[in-house]
Amino acid sequence: MCLPQDFSRLSNRYWPYRYVTDQDAPDLLRLFEKVTRSGRQLSVMAHFSHPVELEKPVVQEAIRRIRMTGANVRCQAPLIRQINDDPAVWADVSHPQRQLLIIHEHVLTGLG
Questions:
Q1: Does the pTM of the predicted model rise above 0.90?
Q2: Which end of the chain has fewer CB within 10 Å, C or N?
Q3: Does residue 1 lie in a domain region?
Q4: What is the pLDDT of residue 79?
């Protein structure tokens, strides 16, 4: 199975069913497990820009299933004016990320 470069980055936010209910979800998760059992480190990059994105149970289940394979879930997110450009929003988003064992990588900035 060959995965496109951006496969993991947006799938857990926009289509978490990819890891939960899609027909080939078990096959994909077995592939992740095979990779991690071989001694390789596997990370799925997520983009969560606002705490609301982490509230859906299906998102939490997708993250749990990915982590159960031995893979890490890492997060990077863009700074978006009037959406998450307030430190309080980042405080609110970091708590569920820590609870779900998501590794926060960095914030992508481009505000002018």
A1: no
A2: C
A3: no
A4: 80
Tokens of 74: 């890492």
Given a contact cutoff of 8 angstroms between Cβ atoms, the answer to whether 36 and 70 are in contact is: yes
Instruction: State the pLDDT at residue 13.
Output: 56
Backbone angles phi, psi at 108, to 5 degrees: -90, 120
Divide the 112 residues of the chain into consecutive groups of 10 and give the mean pLDDT of each group.
Answer: 47 79 96 96 89 91 96 87 85 87 79 53
Burial tier of 69 (Cβ tally within 10 Å: 0-12, 13-18, 19+): buried
Contacts of 50 (CB under 8 A, 6+ apart): 83, 84, 89, 93
The answer to whether the CB of 32 falls within 8 A of the CB of 70 is: yes
**Where in the sequence is the domain holding 95, given as residue range(s)?**
7-108
